[in-house]
From TrEMBL:
Gene3D superfamilies linked: 3.90.1570.50, P-loop containing nucleotide triphosphate hydrolases (3.40.50.300)
One example GO MF annotation: DNA binding
Quaternary structure note: The type I restriction/modification system is composed of three polypeptides R, M and S.
InterPro entries: Helicase_ATP-bd, HsdR_RecA-like_helicase_dom_2, P-loop_NTPase, Restrct_endonuc_type1_HsdR_N, Restrct_endonuc_typeI_HsdR, SWI2_SNF2, Type-I_R_enzyme_R_subunit
Domain of life: Bacteria
Protein name: Type I restriction enzyme endonuclease subunit
EC annotation from Swiss-Prot or TrEMBL: 3.1.21.3
Catalytic activities: Endonucleolytic cleavage of DNA to give random double-stranded fragments with terminal 5'-phosphates, ATP is simultaneously hydrolyzed
NCBIfam families (UniProt xref): hsdR (TIGR00348)
Keyword flag Nuclease: yes
Family: Belongs to the HsdR family.
Family matches, as SMART domains: DEXDc (SM00487)
Function: Subunit R is required for both nuclease and ATPase activities, but not for modification.
Length: 712
């Protein structure tokens, strides 16, 4: 007998009952079908959660819930989410005077004081009469809508459940004013997302206990027990759902399972480190898997678990500082405070000394310098360092060969400045086995979420490699010397000007890479590849990584000579200099112009489709529709892995990202993969576009074979 949707619904209800939920059959409940929540249960639960509050206060809270009807669905939902996470401030007359108090919708500290119910066939009437499959209620509030599809009907799947949920949001939007997240499931596949999530951002929950080293396919009970254990559900609702203020409006974000469990581990390690050696550990989650948001969730939970510490977020570049600061600022309501940026060492000291607790302060490593006096000796400071492996975090002293001056590593300077703080490092790439400084600063790994798991989960796309090396007559020794030079400069925290100076010293290489005939061959081949692949699956935006600023300008001019109508399609994004030729200024533009280009490039509907870069946009810059990167610049190590990760973001219809190599980075790519997990080295250590094409061909062939099953 086939396992029908009705059978599946009953199995899920039984699963919920086993987790301590009360089951109710919707049609048997006496209620007003025009009210989205369970009124009688709500009032009873609020009295239980707020035992010392008078009926008048409870009544006012319910009125506020009833009147959540202003603005868009997302705005109403944001208001309710704030009420749910932090309580409702009410005013009422107690017979003598007006009183202001907080009424809480959930008791997050005492799970058993809340009422958990699973109700099927709950009918609600608004623009139309609709009946949801399963709704999870907490204290009478419809917090989770579960839409099911039959596991035995081939014509339906979880994607159809997603479309059904979107239709519900149009037909009965008030139900979703009170929604925390949604679930779509056909037994074989279960995913969760929010009211703003596109289908490709609905994610599986692949573990009950945080062990996800080898999870690719999981049973439905793992998904539901992983999320809906009562205490965990309340934890997710309070601490792992937030709104991010984007330019197009607020986006509601539900943490992925890897973020949830990793942040919980980090909090426990932090509690131990603050009373011991100050080494919290290293949080390695592969690029594109939501590391910045994990940092937001961690910072939020720190405030509650560690008596409101001051958080100092350190990056190694101003642009990364701006990007991370912007992400935190978008979530300031969730964080319950506004992050600030320190614009100098003196300002950093003022920001630290002007408070005894709280605060999220962003700064760069360059704000720290050798000094006899620490910036602060407080113990309740947590230092969060982004990309904690670049080499600038050294402890060792170095002697200048020319002057004989002794300088100490940045890590030592930071530790001397904040001697009693605790330190955690966040990274998207692994720590080198040769890198002892990072472990010395931060401690061991807290959690690892590798490339393989991220791709399996759909958190990132696979990245493939294609070699189209044009004849440059460069020997390996020259390329290796260049790699070594850049690595050395990067480790010493070189500025853009220093790197540019180094490139000028390698003028013979500049002449080869920038020769008109070479640039012509390069541009001709890029155009051929780009235009051919627009017809197939590798659509989306493209990025050309140029060797130097002059080479970038040469590529730009030659592309426009070959495609004169592409003036709005191709743009150069790089830093400017006072010594630049006059004609460059209009092309490069000022800081505001670059911000506008970034906004345009992130908009998949904008005509700007190709960005030519040198160093900018290669780290911390997310463009989901970016599918192809043309590399005409030697890169290695972490810099290489961070750069190619620009094309691994998930986007609707995107099957993967492609790195097209014109300079010979294959060896560097294999070297960079050396410190990754064993399965990452196996799956991505030698990526191949032909292998991807063959895999896709086999998938399509299997579909065709299924269509013609039974026919000769």
């Amino acid at each position: 007998m086939p396992f029908t949707e009705d059978n599946y619904e009953k199995a899920l209800i039984s699963l919920f009952e086993g987790m301590g939920y009360q089951y109710l059959y919707g049609p048997n409940i006496e209620r007003d079908y025009y009210v989205p929540y369970y009124e009688a249960q709500l009032e009873e639960s609020l009295q239980t959660v707020n035992p010392k509050k008078p009926h008048a206060a409870i009544h006012e809270a319910i009125i506020k819930l009833r009147n959540i009807d202003m603005g868009s669905l997302v705005q109403r939902n944001e208001t309710f989410t704030d009420y749910l996470q932090h309580g409702i401030e009410v005013s009422y007359f107690n017979g003598k005077e007006m009183r202001n108090e907080m009424v809480y919708l959930i008791d997050f500290e005492h799970t058993d004081k809340n009422t958990f119910q699973v109700i099927n066939q709950w009918t609600f009437i608004e623009n139309a009469e609709k009946r949801a499959d399963i709704i999870v209620f907490v204290n009478g509030l419809p917090l989770v809508v579960v839409e099911l599809k039959s596991p035995s009907r081939e014509e339906t799947d979880a994607s159809e459940a997603y479309l059904q949920l979107r239709n519900y949001m149009k037909d009965i939007p008030s139900l979703f004013s009170f929604n925390m997240f949604c679930v779509m499931s056909d037994m074989a596949l279960s995913k969760a997302g929010t009211i703003t999530s596109k289908e490709d951002r609905y994610m599986e929950w692949k573990t009950k206990d945080g062990n996800y080293e080898s999870t690719e396919f999981v049973d439905y009970d793992t998904f539901f027990e992983g999320i809906f254990q009562r205490e965990r559900l309340l934890d997710i609702i309070k601490n792992f759902i937030c709104f991010s203020k984007e330019e197009r409006g607020s986006a509601k974000i539900l943490a992925g399972y890897h973020q949830y469990f990793a942040v919980k581990k980090a909090i426990e390690r932090t509690k131990h480190a603050t009373v011991s050696n100050g080494k919290i550990g290293v949080f390695w989650h592969t690029q594109g898997s939501g590391k910045s948001l994990s940092m937001v969730f961690y910072a939020h939970l720190l405030q509650q678990e560690l008596s409101q510490p001051t958080i100092v977020v350190i990056t190694d570049r101003n642009d990364l500082d701006d990007q991370l600061y912007t992400q935190f600022s978008k979530c300031k309501e969730f964080l319950r405070q506004t992050p600030v940026q320190a614009n100098s060492r003196e300002n950093l000291k003022e920001l630290l000394s002007g408070r005894e607790a709280n605060g999220i302060i962003f700064t760069t490593m360059q704000k720290f310098e050798e000094s006899d006096e620490p910036l602060s000796e407080r113990r309740n400071i947590i230092v969060m360092t982004d990309e904690a492996h670049r080499g600038q975090y050294g402890f060792e002293e170095k002697v200048d060969a020319t002057t004989g001056k002794i300088s100490i590593g940045t890590a030592r300077i930071i530790h001397n400045s904040l001697p009693n703080a605790s330190y955690i490092g966040f990274t998207g790439t692994p720590i080198s086995t040769k890198d002892r400084d990072t472990v010395e600063v931060f401690g061991d790994y807290i959690d690892i979420y590798d490339m393989t798991q991220a791709v399996n989960d759909g958190a990132t796309c696979p990245v493939y490699y294609e070699s189209r090396v044009i004849n440059l007559n460069l020997d390996d020794a020259t390329l290796q010397a260049l790699d070594d030079e850049y690595e050395l400069l990067a480790e010493e925290g070189a500025t853009t000007e220093q790197i540019e100076k180094s490139k000028k010293e390698m003028s013979h290489l500049e002449e080869i890479l920038g020769a008109p005939a070479t640039i012509d061959s390069l541009c001709q081949d890029i155009l051929k590849h780009y235009e051919e692949n627009r017809q197939y699956e590798l659509t989306g935006k493209a990025m050309i990584v140029a060797y130097s600023r002059p080479v970038a300008m040469s590529i730009y001019h030659r592309l426009l000579e070959l495609r004169p109508k592409w003036t709005d399609k191709v743009k150069v994004v790089m830093t400017g200099s006072n010594q630049d030729p006059e004609e460059w200024h209009d092309i490069i533009g000022n800081k505001q112009y670059k911000k506008e280009l970034a906004k345009r490039f992130k908009d998949d509907n904008d005509p700007m489709k190709i960005a030519i870069v040198v160093d900018m946009w290669l780290t911390g810059f997310d463009v989901p529709s970016l599918a192809t990167m043309y590399v005409y610049k030697p890169m290695s190590g972490h810099n290489l892995m961070q750069a190619i990760a620009r094309v691994n973001r998930v986007f609707n219809g995107k099957v993967g990202g492609l790195v097209v190599d014109y300079i010979g980075i294959a060896k560097a790519l294999k070297e960079a993969m050396r410190d990754y997990t064993g399965r990452d080295r196996k799956n991505f250590g030698n990526p191949d576009i032909k292998g991807m094409a063959f895999t896709k061909f086999k998938e399509k062939l299997e579909v065709c074979q299924d269509l013609f099953h039974g026919y000769n």
